[in-house]
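Apologies for my clumsy wording, but are you able to produce some protein sequence, whichever is easiest, and the tokens describing how it folds?
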Amino acid sequence: MESIYSNVMLDAKGLACPMPIVRTRKVMKEMEAGQVLEVQATDKGSKADLQAWAESTGQQYLGTVEDGDVLKHFLRKASDEEKGTPSYPHIADNAQLEQKLQSDESIVVLDVREPAEYAFRHIPNAVSIPLGDIENCLGELNKQAEIYVICRTGTRSDMAAQKLAANGFERVLNVVPGMSSWSGPTANMNE
């Protein structure tokens, strides 16, 4: 199995509810927005507990990997910026992207989420370049390509689309609402 990158690891093995959540909340407060937390737990109920906690607090539950008796939960700390309104003018909705993928047209799907988000669920053949790496990776993208930029909600992809446009990319579309509502084909780290 491919290893998933996290910024911080929390050892909650041997702890019963509600302690994994109590410790997770404490560690999350100290983390920067966008960072990924790996919570290692042995309590079988911790998956549902952490999913519910993340949803109720606005954080992002990415997924869980079972490693023997240890559950490795991955959560991403949300930022206030992600709750903003997209401002990049060229937008495509999820249905338009899915239609493009089903056609024979050549497009690039650029996923600007963090590597852990991409590992758990992404559009097949999408190029993964996290938002924070975009400026350093412009040379990896074709300026003439039609590029559909996607993230979880359309906010990070909005920022990435603006950066691409500012650097001479003319055929860039921000996909809204993004992976949070994507119902098309997906792949994960095991595929």
The chain has a mean pLDDT of 91. Strands lie at 8-12, 36-41, 60-67, 70-76, 91-93, 108-111, 127-128, 147-150, 172-176. The first strand starts at residue 8 and ends at 12. Residues 1 and 190 are 7 Å apart (CA to CA).
